[in-house]
Amino acid sequence: MQKRLLFITGSPGSGKTTVLLKTVEALKARGYSVGGMVSREVRAQGTRVGFEISDLSTSRKGWLAHVNQKYGPRVSKYRVNLEDLNSIGADAIMKAVENFDIVAMDEIGPMELHSERFKEAVKKAVVSGKLVIGTVHWRVRDKLIEEVKTREDAEIYRVTYENRGNLHEILIEKAVEFLAKTTKG
Questions:
Q1: Residue 105 burial (10 A CB sphere; 0-12, 13-18, 19+)
Q2: From CA 85, how far away is CA 92, in angstroms rounded?
Q3: How is residue 69 annotated by DSSP?
Q4: CA dihedral 55, 154, 6, 170 (to 10 degrees)
Q5: Would you kindly state where each structural domain of the chain is located, as residue ranges?
Q6: Is residue 185 predicted with pLDDT exceeding 70?
Q7: Across the chain, where does the E strand assignment appear?
Q8: Average pLDDT in the chain
Q9: pTM of the predicted protein model
Q10: What region does 71 belong to: left with phi over 0, alpha with psi -120 to 50, or beta?
């Protein structure tokens, strides 16, 4: 079966987001439209203070979580900013499902799973028939993550120190193969 849901996993700091972004940039360079959301860690004086999210199509940014966030669900030392997660992250995924060739999601993880709107956006992307490229938390046990990981049309790639330099090439090949079959009509 042709794999349509390509997910990257790996331990924190392994390079999941970097692999995703390299894949997205290469697919854009080949003429495909890509929308969705990406999250990046933010550091101050060498210490991680939070995570920023951005909409890939508009570059709109917000906070996924921060150590100084005053309200929201707590995950480790951070509080999740549900307002930005919903209005930037979940909305970016929904827009990608409607308007783009490829839906990118970074990441399906413990912070994002506090948002019902984010979970609905993920579910919509998964059943959309569109190519989805995303990252999924390596350790979290959650019904949605298990459903996504065990789908017949899903493939999970683990980022390691050894493969992080070229894993994007494998993902690009798989993505182009899928897109070529679906756009031939």
A1: buried
A2: 10
A3: -
A4: -170
A5: 5-39+85-183
A6: no
A7: 5-9, 34-44, 47-55, 61-66, 74-75, 78-80, 102-108, 131-136, 154-158
A8: 95
A9: 0.95
A10: beta
Tokens of 116: 């019902």
Express each pLDDT in 72-126 by its tens digit. 999 999 999 999 999 999 999 999 999 999 999 999 999 999 999 999 999 999 9
% of the chain residues with pLDDT over 90: 91
β-sheet with 78-80: strand ranges across: 74-75, 78-80, 61-66, 47-55, 34-44, 102-108, 131-136, 5-9, 154-158
74: alpha, beta or left? (left if phi > 0; alpha if psi -120 to 50)? beta
CATH architecture of 5-39+85-183: 3-Layer(aba) Sandwich (3.40)
Q: Which of 103, 105, 66, 110 is nearest to 84 (CA)?
A: 66
State the sign of the Cα–Cα–Cα–Cα dihedral 66, 70, 73, 76.
positive
What tokens were used for 9? 């996993």
